[in-house]
Structures are given as structure tokens and as C-alpha cells.
């Protein structure tokens, strides 16, 4: 792992890094050192590792819980090179959406293409992060990912035993039912009640399939992107409960 | 209102009271005075005002948020006299359950009979509580009630504008859809995923019917009575968000 840039602001150290050709970012408390629980945050479709939905979770996880938090760019996004096949599939899906047609096999192909690279990338990143003094390999690991990062997240969590708690959701993908059934860790699962692209029946079918003894569905009114802010707070408490926290902040 | 007994333990003042013939209990912080937000807690079927599911919520609401919390016995329960019609209907329902038969009109009749007395009782109790210095009539009011207290709670919340936030759920009662649609306050709504007596589709139909702009469904694995303890914590934060809290405790 190469650290390519480092800044400190508002009590948070931000380190940009690269694990071979995977660009990532690690946030840790600026004023402490030593191993700590780690949360990996996946970003949504068309976003990148420092997008608002990542940062809005990462910063409070660091400041309220003392966690390390990491994000990487998915293939074809952020600081990664163009990915011709992903670009072709996204353009095809955009055309189908504009024409009001169903996505058909293009959507599955897109997710398969992304996952074939992204899942091993996450695992290589986790290997590298656990060699850092500020993370270590003896601390629990969580994953947070919704929408496209929920799709890849179900695959990742099903495949990666180091991850012991996950916030997932906003996906309706029947092809993931088998992967969901292999998940046995605690899961907080988000559903937007009026998410037209992810019908609630399909989302709940995935929740139902999860093999976890502890799983909680949080359904809120509104469309795909309208997750209420109090769900960030809820995810903080979920991870604090399952990963512990490095400090004992006054806000918990 | 007559205060019939008062004790203090673990920082909580418990006052037993009667509002005409309605027996109730009020919990407030032992070490403070003056008006504060009030949470009314309804108890489940066959339980009473000081049952475990009431006390397990009431005590942390008082200690973590500084709220006043009140509960009353539903007709035919706790310190209230036997109610022959309720007793007859409960016996009939028990017989039907033992025989594996559907409850039919007896269940609706039971709920109607209870509600005809319980809703005005709650309103008279709220009138009396708001005259106390330790509650006052200028503070917000919440309601917490699941199962039978979710059934009556939907009726109460739909009828009582002084209640401005509610935790409801564990009920599948299609006859309440119109009442649910009249509810516009923030609601946290609980569903047990494997609750055989309250099929999830019916419970979600009620959630869907709620007219509230802010409504959150929390579904957890397990049967009717197996609500995970972290949902108590979630309800504390829900009420703190919507009712404010009298102090600023370190646990929030």
C-alpha cells in the first residue's frame, strides 16, 4: 500500500492510498493511534470513494466511535481509468431507462462485471489495511453499502468472513437470494418505501433470505435517495454495538 | 386525580394514582421538578400498567431523557374490576385458539369493547396529568403501544391531537386502516418478521396506510414477544428527537 496524500481536519486524518491500482481513502481519528475497528463503505452507482453518501457516514463513524473507515473507487469510477465494458453497459441501461424499457440482462451483466473486479479489490484492500498500525488485524470489521454498494456488498459479505456486521439495502436483485442466504452476521437492512426502481416486495425478499440470526429491516417513506438522516445515527449505534468502539464518546 | 402511593428508587419517583375509577402510575425523575415531555405507555393483552414491557421502557425514558411516563390499566386488567363482557370475549377467543379455529368477530368485538372505554380513559388521564406541576400542559406528549396497545394506540393517536409522536406496531387489523390514514405525526412502527398471529403483509398494510410524512418500519426476526432490546434504545432516541428531552443525559 502506498499513502499518496495525507491531510488532517476537524479531528480526522484523511489518507489517500493505492493498493496496486486500487485507489482508496482511509479516515482515522487524528489524535489517537493503535488498532481499532474498521468500517468499509461502498459507494453507490456513478459515485466515488469520497462522495457525499460515503463521507456523511465516515466522518461520524470516526468522530463518534473512533473507528477507522475506508472506501475505494469501484471499477470505472473516481480516480480509476475508464472501463470500456462498464461504460457500454451503463450507456445501454441509460438508453433503456430513457425509452422506458426494462433493463433486461444489461443490468445483471453490469453488476456481474463490477463485482468480478470489486470483490477481490475489497479483499486486497482489507489485507493491506490490516497491516497498518492504525487498523491492525485483530479488530472487527464492518461493511456499509446501499444501492449498487448493497448489491456488491451482499456478494462481499457472503464471501468475506472478516466482516462481522453490515448495513445493506436499497437493492432488489433476485439473483442475490443464494448469496443472501449465506450471510449469517448481524445486518441492518434499509428499504425506501417509495423506491420505484427497487420494489419493496423484491427488497423484502432479499431481507427474508438473509441467514442472519439478527437482522433488522428499517423501512422509511420516500424515494431511493431520501434516506432520513436519523438512519446514519442508527448505523452508528449498530456498528458500535457489534464492533465495539475505540473510545467512549459522550455522544453514545 | 388522587395520588394513592409514592415511592422513590434508583432516581425514579413512582406515583400510583386514580383518575375517577381509572388506576394509573406516573414515573418522573426523583431529583428534578417542573414540566417535562410525557410518554403514555399502553400495555399488551392480559398484562397491566406495571408489567415488564411497560416498566422496561418507562424507566430508561425517565432516566435517559428526563421524561414523565404514565401507564393505566386497561378495562378488566390490573387493579380494575372484572369486566364481564371482556372476560366472556377473551374466554371465547381462548377456546377458538385452543381448537385451532379463526377468531372471527369475537376479536373485533373484544377490541371494540376495550377501546370504547380505554380511549376516553386515556384522554381523561391526560387531562389530569397535564394539571400536575411535574407534567404541565405546554410540553409534547408521546405514546408507546404494541400488540393490543398498538390496536388501541392507533385509535387513540388518530383521535388525540395532543399526542405528537408514537411508537406503534405488532398489530394486523384491517379495520384500523381508516384510523391509520388519519395519523399524521411521526411514527416508529414495529413488526416481528415471524409473528404468526400478525402476518407481516397485514402489519405492513397498516404501516402503508399511515398518513405520517415521517414513518419508519422496524422489522426484526422472531416471534410476537421477541422484540430485541436495542429497539428500546431506538424508541428512546425516537422520542428524544420528537419530544425533546428535559435534561441532556450523557447516554444520548
TrEMBL record, chains A, B:
Gene3D superfamilies: alpha/beta hydrolase
Molecular function GO labels: carboxylic ester hydrolase activity
Keywords annotated in UniProt: Hydrolase
InterPro entries from the UniProt entry: AB_hydrolase_fold, FrsA_esterase
PANTHER family referenced in this protein's UniProt entry, alphabetically: DIENELACTONE HYDROLASE DOMAIN-CONTAINING PROTEIN-RELATED, POLYKETIDE TRANSFERASE AF380
Family, as annotated: Belongs to the AB hydrolase superfamily.
Protein name (Swiss-Prot/TrEMBL): Alpha/beta hydrolase
Organism: Dactylosporangium matsuzakiense
Amino acid at each position: 500500500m502506498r499513502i499518496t496524500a495525507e491531510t488532517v481536519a476537524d479531528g480526522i486524518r484523511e489518507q489517500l492510498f493505492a493498493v496496486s491500482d486500487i485507489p482508496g481513502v482511509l479516515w482515522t481519528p487524528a489524535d489517537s493511534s493503535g488498532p481499532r475497528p474498521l468500517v468499509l463503505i461502498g459507494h453507490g452507482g456513478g459515485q466515488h470513494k469520497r462522495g457525499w453518501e460515503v463521507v456523511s457516514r465516515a466522518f461520524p463513524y470516526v468522530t463518534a466511535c473512533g473507528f477507522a473507515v475506508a472506501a475505494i473507487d469501484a471499477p470505472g469510477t473516481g480516480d480509476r481509468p475508464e472501463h470500456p465494458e462498464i461504460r457500454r453497459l451503463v450507456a445501454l441501461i441509460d438508453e433503456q431507462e430513457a425509452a422506458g424499457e426494462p433493463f433486461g440482462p444489461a443490468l445483471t451483466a453490469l453488476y456481474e462485471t463490477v463485482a468480478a473486479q470489486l470483490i477481490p479489490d475489497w479483499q486486497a484492500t482489507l489485507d493491506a489495511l490490516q497491516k497498518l498500525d492504525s487498523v491492525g488485524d485483530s479488530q472487527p470489521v464492518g461493511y456499509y453499502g446501499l444501492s449498487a454498494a448493497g448489491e456488491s456488498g451482499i456478494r462481499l459479505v457472503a464471501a468475506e468472513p472478516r466482516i462481522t456486521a453490515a448495513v445493506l439495502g436499497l437493492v432488489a436483485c433476485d439473483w442475490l437470494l443464494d448469496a443472501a442466504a449465506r450471510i449469517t452476521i448481524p445486518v441492518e437492512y434499509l428499504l425506501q418505501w417509495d423506491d420505484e426502481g427497487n420494489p419493496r416486495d423484491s427488497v423484502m425478499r432479499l431481507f427474508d433470505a438473509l441467514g442472519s440470526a439478527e437482522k433488522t429491516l428499517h423501512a422509511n417513506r420516500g424515494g431511493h435517495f431520501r434516506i432520513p438522516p436519523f438512519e446514519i445515527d442508527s448505523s452508528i449505534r449498530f456498528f458500535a454495538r457489534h464492533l465495539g468502539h475505540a473510545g467512549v464518546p459522550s455522544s453514545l
